[in-house]
Amino acid sequence: MRLWIVDGLHLGAGSTTPDDARVEVARVHRQNGVEVVPGSSLKGVLRTRAEYICRVLGLAACLDQRCGDCRPCGLFGFTAVDGRARRARARIAVHASTIVGAVVRPRQHVALDRFTGDARPSALYTLDVVTDGVLRLRVDALDVLAPGDVELLHAVLCDLDDGLVGIGARTTSGLGTVRVDDRDWRRPDLTALAVHLTNEAR
């Protein structure tokens, strides 16, 4: 699934290094010289939003990702220690994604004093932001998926496409918005999904 970057991504897995005595630069995550969104970051976005959707529908979704009984634990895997060790691998694999046509630009910011609201002295810092490019979200099934799992993942894609959730860091500051850029993708019937998942949980 192709995802087009709308307003910039900051990938928090990059290192932070001093550019000089006063300026910190948060680098974009790179592998083999190209910008990459780690699979763990993408899986985290998918799981967190899937949990939210389940809760909105009144379905079980644990808060610590360890219960082993809810749909998100079954789909994304879990590790629990509750008197006995329990674990199960995910039914899906979310791969790292190279950003094709990545355009990286620095954006400078000034840290604010949380008490006064004023700019802190000598607190200038810079973020490397991927302002343009396309990434491919690749999710492979590792096991037989439960009924409704694929539809749930497509519901998460809808929320990404609608800008309700973002990828990477600083999504509350306007970064991380992507749009689905795949002519073969069709938005699922969310009403039918809600009825299906709710009936299945009964």
List the helices and strands and how they pair.
Layout: E1 2-5, E2 16-18, E3 24-26, E4 30-31, E5 34-37, H1 39-56, H2 71-76, E6 78-81, E7 85-88, E8 92-94, E9 97-112, E10 119-136, E11 139-141, H3 149-161, E12 178-180, H4 190-201
Parallel strand pairs: 3-10
Antiparallel strand pairs: 1-10, 1-12, 2-3, 4-5, 5-9, 6-7, 8-11, 9-10
Helix pairs in contact: 1-3
Notes on the protein architecture:
- With 202 residues, the protein is of the alpha+beta class.
- The protein has one domain (2-193).
- It contains 4 helices and 12 strands.
- Helix 1 packs across helix 3.
- Mean pLDDT is 81; it is low at 18-25.
Main sheet attributes: strand count, strand direction, barrel closure: 8 strands, mixed
Q: Give the SSE order as H and E letters.
A: EEEEEHHEEEEEEHEH
- How many helices? The count is 4
Count the beta strands: 12
- Looking at the structure, what is the overall shape? globular
Count of all domains: 1
Radius of gyration: 19 Å
Q: Give the helix proportion (percent range).
A: 10-25%
Strand content: 25-35%
Which structural category do the helix and sheet elements fall into? Answer: alpha+beta
**Poorly predicted tracts of residues:** 18-25
What integer is the average pLDDT?
81
Would you summarize the structure shown here?
The chain is built from 4 helices and 12 strands. Strands 1, 2, 3, 4, 5, 9, 10 and 12 form an 8-stranded mixed beta sheet that branches. Strands 6-7 form a two-stranded antiparallel sheet. The chain has a two-stranded antiparallel sheet with strand order 8-11.
